[in-house]
Amino acid sequence: MNEILAVIYYAFANDNSSQFRHRIEADAFHCFLNIMGEVKENFIRSLDNTGIGIKSKMSIFDELLKVVDPELW
Question: Which domain holds residue 60?
Fold first, then answer.
């Protein structure tokens, strides 16, 4: 999850607008919480064997990749 937050923080820290510099950490954390709210099912072990767990998402991605780019698959 730190990889997600690091990208958000980096984007905010490299913004040319100095108006929001004093709030970079708080804004990055707020965005991180919103993203994690959307993808939290991927990190809950009890949901792994359901239709919304990470195994299900990876299976869907695998099938999509097979159709879109068979050579990479």
Answer: 2-68
